[in-house]
């Protein structure tokens, strides 16, 4: 039993086989998937997908930093309407991305804070995107994020940065395909992060984990990241699956049933 805590199966890359991808994940033990929106349209698509797969797919609604310039009062009003739906379990994904800088820095920061306000108003967890922007994310969370909860999705930093992220009591770290690759600090983070504050994800269709050679990631492949995490912790896959599933259920409110692995 695993939860893919971040997958974009609403995107066009799954248009030809979306249902078979979901069924393959279920058959492989990935029992639930969280699909976060990246703009208004994808948030709507994620919600529609969650409604058509109750108890299996859950939605997040939000605007990715790449699309921050599209965030308007009207967009926010529509996000508010969607947030009231029971299938919506998070605000996001949103955050700061200073790597590609597809939206101006100050626009990203302002939109980031508006998402935090939504999460507070609706008492939902945040799904936060951080790329080359760690210091600003921490600064804004210290100023505006007190008492909120959420996840730093596809965490890519070092141990010191992980400790800063985890200084916010309600937040978790999520590991994706980069954990299976060499040349980063993620193995050290994975070994030291508190077990009750870690999740696994695919971020599919992106970030295919090793040793796979697939051209597209999908929820079923979250098991490779979970296995790597288990190896680093000296645990079994079943143990890591149980822990990360319980964490996802707790953070996103996916239900109180913890199936036996």
Write the layout of secondary structure elements.
Elements: E1 2-4, H1 18-27, E2 30-36, H2 40-52, E3 57-61, H3 73-83, E4 88-97, H4 105-122, E5 126-131, H5 134-144, E6 149-152, H6 159-166, E7 170-175, H7 186-192, E8 198-200, H8 222-233, H9 237-252
Parallel strand pairs: 1-2, 2-3, 3-4, 4-5, 5-6, 6-7, 7-8
Compressed to H and E, one letter per element, the order equals EHEHEHEHEHEHEHEHH
Q: Strand percentage, roughly?
A: 15-25%
Number of domains: 1
- Indicate the CATH topology: TIM Barrel
- What count of helical segments does DSSP give? 9
The CATH architecture term is: Alpha-Beta Barrel
Helix content: 40-55%
Strand order of the largest sheet: 1-2-3-4-5-6-7-8
Sheet with most strands? 8 strands, parallel
N- and C-termini, Cα separation: 5 Å
**What is the radius of gyration computed over CA atoms, rounded to a whole number of angstroms?**
17 Å
Low-confidence stretches: 256-261
Could you state the CATH homologous superfamily?
Answer: Metal-dependent hydrolases
Question: Which of globular, elongated, flat, extended, rod-shaped describes the shape?
Answer: globular
Q: In total, how many beta strands?
A: 8
Summed over residues and divided by their number, the pLDDT gives a mean of 96
Helix and strand content put the structural class at alpha/beta
Reading off the top of the CATH hierarchy, the class is best stated as: Alpha Beta
């Amino acid at each position: 039993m695993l939860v893919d805590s971040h997958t974009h199966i609403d995107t066009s890359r799954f248009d030809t086989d979306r249902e078979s991808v979901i069924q393959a994940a279920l058959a492989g033990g990935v029992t639930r998937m969280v699909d976060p929106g990246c703009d208004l349209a994808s948030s709507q698509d994620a919600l529609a997908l969650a409604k058509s797969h109750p108890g299996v797919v859950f939605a997040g609604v939000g605007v990715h930093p790449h699309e921050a310039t599209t965030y308007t009062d009207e967009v926010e009003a529509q996000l508010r309407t969607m947030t009231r739906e029971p299938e919506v379990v998070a605000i996001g994904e949103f955050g700061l991305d200073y790597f590609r800088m597809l939206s101006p820095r100050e626009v990203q920061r302002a939109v980031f804070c508006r998402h935090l306000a939504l999460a507070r108003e609706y008492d939902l967890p945040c799904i936060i995107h951080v790329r080359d922007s760690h210091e600003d994310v921490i600064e804004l969370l210290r100023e505006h994020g007190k008492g909120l909860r959420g996840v730093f999705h596809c965490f890519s930093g070092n141990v010191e940065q992980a400790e800063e992220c985890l200084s916010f009591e309600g937040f978790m770290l999520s590991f994706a395909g980069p954990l299976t690759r060499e040349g980063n600090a993620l193995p050290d983070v994975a070994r030291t992060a508190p077990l009750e504050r870690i999740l696994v994800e695919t971020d599919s269709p992106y970030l295919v984990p090793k040793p796979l050679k697939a051209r597209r990631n999908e929820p079923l492949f979250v098991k490779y990241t979970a296995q790597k995490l288990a190896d680093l912790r000296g645990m079994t896959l079943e143990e890591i699956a149980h822990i990360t599933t319980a964490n996802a259920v707790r953070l996103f409110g996916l239900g109180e049933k913890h199936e036996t692995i």
